[in-house]
Automatic annotation (TrEMBL):
Pfam families to which the protein is assigned, alphabetical: NAD_binding_10
GO molecular function, one term: oxidoreductase activity, acting on the CH-NH group of donors, NAD or NADP as acceptor
UniProt name for this protein: Rrf2-linked NADH-flavin reductase
Limits of the NAD(P)-binding domain: 7-190
Length: 206
């Protein structure tokens, strides 16, 4: 497959690219500056449909962390959706865990619980807005993939994951965790299988 990765130089993007390359896929990395793994230096908001004309899957692994640009999570995802609207190519969005519900009634997201770190609330709300905006799109083949609550950048690659939905789930040890490397496996699996188009899914360690 031909996979375009936005934010290919970031921690998540780089591991997704590595996982896809290990399976023989053709990867094009996009980034805002020239770095290892970046084939095309271009701001995501400056991309055109022509830039993505030959790809099968676009992975939005863009990260915005400064308070003044958190809204770019939504802006960039919607721009990519615009570019892919009506096309066969799919959009996979690297989401956050803060939106996952902690109750069966689906009234309380993780980010509104007392245990959620205050420092991460603005980012979680921005990613929740990104999710809400994506779910409104019926013209683009998107999938929003949330990681577990403890998203471990340097965590060990265990080689698998448990697929879940919009509820926060835990593994056998009672924790909600997943490494970036195992999350990358889930992203590339979805790229290959296209089993959750137009859905919000989550993944965690077994």
């Amino acid at each position: 497959m031909r996979i375009a990765i936005m934010g290919a130089a970031g921690k998540a993007g780089a591991l997704i690219a590595r996982e896809a390359l290990s399976r023989g896929h053709d990867i094009t990395g996009f980034g805002r500056s020239a770095k290892p793994g970046v084939d095309v230096v271009k701001d995501a908001l400056d991309l055109t449909a022509e830039d993505l004309a030959d790809v099968d899957v676009v992975v939005d692994a863009l990260g915005f962390f400064n308070p003044e640009n958190l809204d770019l999570h939504t802006t960039a995802a919607l721009h990519l959706a615009d570019l892919l609207a009506g096309a066969d190519a799919r959009l996979l969005i690297v989401g956050g865990a803060g939106s996952l519900y902690v109750d069966a009634e689906r009234t309380t997201p993780l980010l509104e619980t007392s245990d959620f770190p205050d420092a991460f609330v603005p980012l979680a709300r921005a990613q929740a807005a990104q999710l809400a905006a994506s779910r409104e799109r019926t013209d683009a083949a998107w999938t929003f993939i949330s990681p577990a609550a403890d998203f471990q950048a340097d965590g060990e690659r265990e080689g698998g994951y448990v697929l879940a939905g919009d509820l926060l789930e835990t593994g056998a040890d009672g924790t909600s965790r997943i490494s970036y490397a195992d999350y990358a496996i889930a992203v590339v699996d979805e790229a290959e299988r296209a089993e959750h188009v137009g859905e919000w899914i989550s993944v965690h360690a077994a």
